[in-house]
What we know:
single chain; mainly alpha
Amino acid sequence: MVLIIVCILAGLGAGIGTGLAGLSAAVVITSVLGYSLKTAVGTSTFIMTFTALTGAVSHIIIGGTVNVTALVVCVIAALVGARASALFANKVDAKKQNRVTGVALCGLGAVLALVNWL
Length: 118
């Protein structure tokens, strides 16, 4: 049961972070290519899908094991979090999106610090 809860929280965190900010190359895509923030985040999120897929396939090819329960729970939670946060991000202005993203990232950082401390 603890594994399921951890996977749900991890998946939601990943989904919300990705849905709100792209958590990847969105800034490099806004400044270099001149895209709007929302277009950059969408593009960045699309690119991250293939990056994650490549990493997962490589892990399996080199003999890594997969906990199927954890995989399924994390994927579902990440999809729910990403969908909800992307809908939110599309409805608010950039200033509010930046504030919410900052709060979400600070919260995620606090959780990671707490987990590492314990």
